[in-house]
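In the laboratory, one determines a bound structure by crystallizing the protein with its ligand and collecting diffraction data. In a computational setting the workflow is compressed into a single prediction: the sequence and the ligand go in, and a structural description comes out. We illustrate the idea with methionine sulfoxide.
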Amino acid sequence: MEIDDLIAHLDEMVASGAELERLLETAVLGLSRSDPRFDWTGVYELFSDNMLRLGPFVGAPTDHVFIGVGNGVCGTAVAERRNMNIPDVREITNYLACSVSTRSELVVLIRSGDVIHGQIDIDSHQVGAFDEASVAKVERVADWLARAYDARGRGAS
Ligand code: SME
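The predicted complex, in structure-token form:
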């Protein structure tokens, strides 16, 4: 699926009153299908106890359902308030393995200014899978989801 089509589909879902959980599922599925190198695609939501909790995902089940801020690539992204693009996970120490086949990982924050709602996490079995174009694509979806979180906060459906 092209990302323009995914965004258009998400817009239509909002117009027909879809809940945030359905939007997250659709975004994850659309991203997962957008690139054969995306072997695991999921969302972690950030809760007020400083824990990331696994939301919708496509790929192998993972033991890492809860990740504390500061732990692993996912928790580090929140602690340092920045996206993470790890070309080879074998070269970093604070990595939480989801699959032994994973080689590269991308974490893009879902954020509205200073407020971090969560993140999109993508694993690839290929080294250096996340080039500029694929990062831009994931950022576009993350920014769209941040606006959906904002709308929910305003009481919109
Ligand atoms: N690799 C992540 C954990 C999540 S799994 O990849 C799905 C990390 O180091 O935080």
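The chain has a mean pLDDT of 95. Keep in mind that any predicted model is a hypothesis to be tested, not a measurement.
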